[in-house]
Amino acid sequence: MNKPLNSTLAAAALVAMQILLFNNLQLRGVLDSFVAPSIYILYLIMLPVNASRVSLLAASFLLGLTVDLFSGHLGVHTAACVLAGFVRPSVTTLLISHEESNKNVRISIYSLGLFYFFLYAFTIALIFHLTLFFLEAFSFYELHITLLRTLLSSIAAVVIMILIEVFFERKK
Amino acid sequence: MGNLLRFILRFRGFILFLVLEGVALAMLLQNADYQRTQVFSALQAVQSYCYSMGSDVSGYFSLRKDNEGLLRENAKLRNALDHYQNQRTATDIQTEQLNGKLFTFLPAKVVNNTTNKQHNLLMLNVGEEQGITSEMGVIADNGVVGIVINTSEHYAIVMSLLNRDFRISARLKRSGHLGTLMWDGLNYQEAILSEVPQHVPVMVGDTVETSGHSAMFPEGITVGTVIYYKTKKGNFHEIRLKLNGDFKKLRFVNVVKSIHYDEQKNLEKQTITPTQ
């Protein structure tokens, strides 16, 4: 299969998974309002190391907009995604060595190793969820609750992303 | 000019970021609160169709439970009816005639429902065609559900009790003292009754019910029971209650149509405006 088609399919599958499964996650009691992982940003995380900032921004805008359209609160996911897409190059330069960063390979646990992938994905997830929950709550009142939601959701999201990677990514 | 172009090229990533983020925030602010439900009506129609298909399927899995719930409610209503038929006195009949019928109830099915956001909404399978308009109350057999905030021809959007913007008047059943019922966004099984004066005796286990001061809801609908209370900043209790109903299992609800709602609101408006 050719690359762009493959990539679009991956995005569609992740967004579908988010809307149909993870947006309807049913947890017990207090956990329910604290764990709301957005796993579809895995697409943004996986894009090749040398992807330009402009293409990252375009991809994240479309991605966020699609999820927004299905969750009835326009703009929240878009804004969080665009910010995550914007900071991604800075995070990759921090964590990925210079010779690696020129390659046109997708970022995965296999190309980075589990530890660095976790670190990288967790940073992006943290930035994303922080923006998302602050925009959703739209106030700095009860700051600790928003921060706790961010932390728990980010951890849940990264764990799920690693599981998805392990299940669907074939070792090259 | 050349310099400007070079500047734009050099910072094109950042400029694009600002533009896209601006668009996203503009969308966010434009659709804040209730209006957010009004955009993309075409998409909403598709979405509601998908949701009602989904809830048709998932409905089969809970048929047994739903039936039990409906049976229980039937029995309760029949008992209540019996009770009232036997107990009606001359004065009761008189007040009934005086008040007229105040509320009518319209059954509806929940086609979409969220509980894990800060501003949760529900979608019902009734709309303008069935006479639903904004600001009607929604109740289930075991408590208050929310308030209709937007309608289309066949569907209605309800602001759930589990919404940070939700506020109605409620009271402690035992003492009759009023407070404001709202949600603090923490737990879908718990709500807050605030602004109850400190001198009011509260006990864990007390029942909280609607007061009838919010014209959308009839008086005396049970909301939940007190599980915890504390005194907050001086003069008021903040009471935490466990909700009677489970919002995750919500499938059948009743939309409350208050017959004198418009009249009450108009009267309020006329009385307030001259003083301002």
Give your account of this protein's structure:
The complex is a heterodimer of chains A (172) and B (276). Chain A is globular and about 45 Å long. With 172 residues, chain A is mainly α. Chain A is built from 8 helices and no strands. Chain A starts with a helix and ends with a helix. The longest helix of chain A is centred in the C-terminal third of the chain and has 26 residues, at 143-168. Chain A has helices spanning 3-20, 31-34, 42-46, 53-71, 76-95, 109-112, 114-137, 143-168. Chain B has helices spanning 2-10, 12-30, 41-61, 63-87, 90-99, 261-272, and strands spanning 103-113, 119-124, 137-140, 143-151, 156-163, 168-172, 178-182, 190-197, 207-210, 222-232, 236-243, 252-258. In chain B, β6 and β7 form a beta hairpin. Chains A and B meet through α4, α5 and α7 of A and α2 of B.
- Which geometry of chain B do the CA atoms define? globular
Number of domains of chain A: 1
Total tally of structural domains of chain B = 3
Q: What's the overall average pLDDT of chain A, rounded?
A: 84
Rg of chain A, alpha carbons:
16 Å
CATH fold-level assignment of chain A: Arp2/3 complex 21 kDa subunit ARPC3
Classified by CATH, the class of the largest domain in chain B is Mainly Beta
If interface size is counted as residues with C-beta under 8 Å from the partner's C-beta, which chains form the largest one? A-B, 37 and 37 residues
What is the count of DSSP helices of chain B, taking H or I runs of 4+ residues? 6
Count of helical stretches of chain A: 8
How far apart are the termini of chain A? 16 Å
